[in-house]
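Protein: RING-type E3 ubiquitin transferase
Species: Salix purpurea
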Amino acid sequence: MATHLPDDFKCPISLEIMSDPVILSSGHTFDRSSIQRWLDSGHRTCPITKLPLPEHPCLIPNHALRSLISSFTIPKSQQDPNPFRDPDPDQSKKYQTQLLIHTLVSPSSTLESKLHSLTQLTRLTKLDSAPRRQLAECGAVSAVLNCVNSTESEIQEKAMALLLNISLDDDNKVGLVAEGVISRVINVIRNGSSSSRAIGCTILTSLAVVEVNKATIGAYPNAIKTLIWALYSGKGREVREAATALYAICSFVDNRKRAVEWGAVPILMKIGGMGLERAVEVLSLLVKCKEGREAMRKANGCLDVLVKVIRNGSERGVQCALFTLNCLCCFAEEFRVEAEKEGVLEICVRFLDEENEKIRRHASSLVQTLSGRG
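Structure follows.
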């Protein structure tokens, strides 16, 4: 059976299929027993590269390769007695995924083969959770993260798309953060291509579905600052995804003050005035903290942006604008006076017959506030 297995499954020293593959500091993989005998003999160079090794070399288990080898070397007693029957589609997909993962983690893989593997794995994981779990469980995430660090923009973009797919599985979200995904993603949002930056923001949104990740991302140095930078300097999809990520992260109370301190409010006002309602949704979270209300009080054009959305926005936008304006009118008298001048009371009265329950409720609260009964 060994003759039909990939050469990378064989130890470079024994030329036998590896049972316990380990990685040497040179980046090459050997069977543990073979490389240990080499080291016990007094050698302190890599058998392949001949480069010097430390006095006490560290042997890192290659979990991804071990998983692949285990999947291929099925005992004969467990093999299908009828090899001519149609293969199980699920099993075929599993083997296909394993081969692609192997290409991705193998140090001998070319740039082109890694790009092909990333493309195919992204396709496989887009709608199917099984390959996502397979990638996470076999230790391949570190290989994907290495591709995220690539200076080749195409490799980086494909790796980011694959990382996003892996993050869609709820069981993977905390583990990805533990593997150091946040720092890699923040770096890409700062320095990657426009497409990679947008995907990076979406990854943060995906990870923030888990409450503990919201706290971790918010506390990570420069995470919120970088999202606000993307709001300010990005275009199109980047700005939308950055606003969505900020909304997800700021649903965690402690992150609202951080966003305000990094200057989110005036930037959100600007892009909200340009028609991005997601910015108003973020403001509806930031207004819940005193620092956010103070910042909105100081920002130019705050009332104009909110009234514009109340008049012409979507149902979701109207809800958020009504809530935000009511909070501000309760906070500062000048907002109440200006809102009355803009005819907000009349608009809210019309909303009292609205079918949308949330719009009716927020409009009713604002009517009471503007009438001095709030």
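Remarks: DSSP finds 22 helices and three strands in the chain.
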